[in-house]
Model the fold of this input.
Amino acid sequence: MKRLVDIAISAAGLIVALPVIAVIAIIIRLETPGNPFFGQTRLGRNEHPFTIWKLRSMHQGTPALGTHEVAVSALTRTGHFIRRTKLDELPQLINILRGHMSLVGPRPCLPNQDEVIAERRKKNVFEARPGVTGLAQIRGIDMSMPVELAACDRAYLDTQSFGLDLSICIQTVTGATNRPGR
Done:
């Protein structure tokens, strides 16, 4: 059932989002040289690699590292805005349609994030399709906290429901998250 909901929402979302994606892509291209889209290898369900798609928020040539490892100065002016508003994630609707991702689930990690991978293996987190957003994101837990991240991902998988997914989506869109210090 979750997959059918993902397909319906991502297909409808893509129809609505295509003009927004196009405008942002033009703005990115006017601000900085290079492709306005950014593809990066991530680990998906059962640790299968796939290419995640985003609108580029950083200057060309920025190292392929986790977001928490990259200097804020690497972000473009447009990048600050699209990151804050989550608009950089819109192309991931294509990843959902292709079956690489779900709307809600554990965020996919980079293949070189060894600590995250090890902790997720211990908790069998890779049994699930990764998500555009997830419980860890609304709780302010990122890849720099591998033990906490894997535990939160596992807690989500053990309690997932349509209601929880809806709540996570609403909190992601509204920014009403449970981040530390809020």
